[in-house]
Amino acid sequence: MRDLRRATLDATARLLAEQGAGGLSVRKIAAAAECSTISVYHYFEHKQGLLDAVHAEGHRRLREAQSAQQHTADPEADVRNTCLVYREVALSYPDYFRVMFGHPIPGFHRPTGQYRTPARENYASFVQVVRRWGEQVSLVTDAKTAAYGLWSTGHGMVMLELTGNAPREGREKRYTVTIDALMHGLIADA
């Protein structure tokens, strides 16, 4: 049986990414999700609820993929693989990433409260992985600062790629080389 809630979220993310707030009508979402408008209202009380759910679902997918990389006996590999899977998830769900990290959508507020929890949990988990790595090697800075540098560098590269502003050739290699160089530079005795 088809998951109508997920189809509705996917359709909402796609329409928002392609058309902005103008694409966020229940009729358009239902048509894109191949369901009735009643189904949309069944799962989501209002349009803001849809936006909140898209945000939370995108972060849930990111968290699921990243957590699979974070619990081995090799913290350095865990940090690296968490950074690399960030790009993979972004490329797999570009519409979600555009909604999660793009400009605010006119007429809607950024998700707050419980809808921000998955984003906070993702980042806190990454800081913990970097902290474990820092217990194994001497870092030039604290784990929070190192995690911020890695996360924001990877995120910036991904967003440039998603918006078509990254060089066309060798994107994956450039990303990997940059993460590796930054990790190497974070080690105090490197």
Automatic annotation (TrEMBL):
<dbReference type="InterPro" id="IPR036271">
    <property type="entry name" value="Tet_transcr_reg_TetR-rel_C_sf"/>
</dbReference>
<keyword id="KW-0805">Transcription regulation</keyword>
<dbReference type="InterPro" id="IPR025996">
    <property type="entry name" value="MT1864/Rv1816-like_C"/>
</dbReference>
<keyword id="KW-0238">DNA-binding</keyword>
<feature type="domain" description="HTH tetR-type">
    <location>
        <begin position="2"/>
        <end position="62"/>
    </location>
</feature>
<dbReference type="InterPro" id="IPR001647">
    <property type="entry name" value="HTH_TetR"/>
</dbReference>
<dbReference type="InterPro" id="IPR050109">
    <property type="entry name" value="HTH-type_TetR-like_transc_reg"/>
</dbReference>
<protein>
    <submittedName>
        <fullName>TetR/AcrR family transcriptional regulator</fullName>
    </submittedName>
</protein>
<dbReference type="Pfam" id="PF00440">
    <property type="entry name" value="TetR_N"/>
</dbReference>
<feature type="DNA-binding region" description="H-T-H motif">
    <location>
        <begin position="25"/>
        <end position="44"/>
    </location>
</feature>
<dbReference type="Pfam" id="PF13305">
    <property type="entry name" value="TetR_C_33"/>
</dbReference>
<dbReference type="InterPro" id="IPR009057">
    <property type="entry name" value="Homeodomain-like_sf"/>
</dbReference>
<keyword id="KW-0804">Transcription</keyword>
